Amino acid sequence: MRKVVLDTNILVSALWSKKGNPYEIVEMVFSFEITPCYNNEIIEEYYEVLLREKLCFPKNEVLCLLHEITKNGFFADHIESDTLFVDESDRKFYDTAKVNEAILITGNTKHYPNEPFVMTPDFFLKHWRTSF
Hints:
The protein has a five-stranded parallel sheet, sandwiched between helices. By secondary structure, the chain is of the alpha/beta class. The protein has helices at 8-16, 21-30, 40-50, 59-72, 91-99, 121-131; strands at 2-6, 34-38, 74-75, 103-105, 118-119. It has a single domain, classed as 3-Layer(aba) Sandwich (Rossmann fold). It has six helices and five strands.
């Protein structure tokens, strides 16, 4: 099973629309096709962002999603890199993916270094069945 780190924007997009690549990726977590890597910092950000009132996501959907990530996922420590980030809050996703040889799936690849393991949802899904 392939390990992935999901940037928070993937979860936001999946909760906004039950169509599209982010939702398909979340469905892959539920069906055990991919294994999400997470740690306390990542889970804290997921909760903080997904439960924001302005997003209006049903709390039970958010809790169910996060339960599946932790139940089906892999608790992964990370070692902080010396890579420079414009937004330091992105570091935890990058470092966790890098240390655990996972794919980082994000809708904002410009926020991360140009590395082969940093992928958009579209790129990940197009190459999932053939390359991984």
